[in-house]
Design a protein that fits this description.
11 helices; nine-stranded mixed sheet; alpha/beta; five-stranded parallel sheet; 31% helix; 322 residues
Length: 322
């Protein structure tokens, strides 16, 4: 089993003034986090999203039902919400003007100075994120589950600025978030699986895959990349990190493997499938990925076993109803 060697220093934030494009939850969180740091920030949205009273209460100015192009004057950095496509008029124009454009995920990661486990894949992201966070939590470690699970990473960063600093962040990363990352470099990066999805946004499966693979792009020696050995599309994932592979299908040389109903780590039994509360072979793979991430960040094997046994099914996902 490979282990993370150190926690990396984060690159500095880009320079303001900032324009936040897209004022759903991620955009609002980014704007508030920047404001809390004393930065000049303005928000725009082409629609009329709900929940903007919090921006008014924080003293952040914004406009809705606008393209936002007129607000580029005087802006140095654009923060793009994941739901905003690169083809949006304001994003395209910001690129033509040579402004820096980063996503909310990138912004939040630069603000958070603790180890980050980043999890992506077409299916299973939320379950694996919640499971991994549960492993840390049940071991007595403070942890924040963030990202695409509904708790933006920049919101975690703002909370940390108020003294609520977690030991670890487990972050669910969508392809929409990853395609906007520039220097994002999690200590542990997990790629669960790949299937055709979001092709209306990415155009084709290759572009979708490339967006997902950005989770590894900036990893360094001393980091850990966790890969599903059963997915041939992931065999050539580009990472300078140490690689840990998991397999439910008996792929040779997998660090985590399924033998009968036992999950093995480096050939040693960890837990049996029947001891876990989550159901389905796909959840065995999710449990392997979460266990690999927790072990890579130094969680004790016994604590991982206890967490795997106690993790409840995520709501609406193979959940017992009677």
């Amino acid at each position: 089993m490979e282990y993370v060697r150190s926690v990396k220093a984060r690159p500095p934030l880009p320079s303001g003034p900032f324009l936040v494009v897209g004022l759903a939850r991620s955009g609002v969180a980014a704007a508030k986090a920047l404001k809390a740091r004393g930065e000049a920030v303005f928000g725009v949205d082409s629609g009329e999203p709900e929940g903007l009273d919090t921006l008014r209460e924080t003293g952040i100015e914004f406009e809705t039902s606008v393209s936002g192009v007129t607000r580029l004057e005087g802006t140095r950095t654009v923060i793009k919400s994941p739901g905003v496509p690169a083809s949006a008029e304001v994003i395209a124009e910001a690129g033509r003007r040579g402004l820096e454009i980063i996503g909310e995920l990138e912004l939040g990661w630069r603000m958070v100075g603790v180890p980050v486990v980043a999890i992506t894949g077409t299916n299973g992201k939320t379950t694996t994120t919640e499971l991994t966070a549960h492993l840390f939590r049940s071991a007595g470690r403070s942890v924040a589950a963030a990202g695409n699970v509904g708790h933006p990473l920049s919101e975690v960063a703002m909370e940390a600025g108020s003294g609520q600093v977690p030991d670890t962040v487990v972050c669910e990363c969508s392809s929409f978030q990853l395609e906007d990352s520039t220097e994002f470099s999690p200590e542990v990066a997990v790629f669960l699986n790949l299937g055709p999805d979001h092709l209306d946004r990415h155009g084709n499966i290759d572009s979708y895959r490339e967006a997902k693979l950005r989770i590894f792009r900036n990893q360094e020696p001393g980091d850990v990349a966790v890969l599903n050995a059963d997915g041939p599309a992931l065999d050539d994932a580009p990472s300078a990190a140490a690689t840990v592979r998991f397999s439910t299908a008996g792929v040779p040389n997998s660090t985590l493997a399924l033998e009968g109903d036992r999950i093995l780590v480096d050939g040693e039994p960890l837990v049996t499938v029947t001891e876990m509360r989550i159901l389905g072979r796909h959840n065995v793979a999710n449990a392997m990925a979460g266990a690999a991430a927790a072990l890579a960040l130094g969680l004790d094997r016994d604590a991982v076993v206890a967490g795997l046994k106690s993790f409840p099914p995520v709501a609406h996902r193979y959940e017992p109803v009677a």
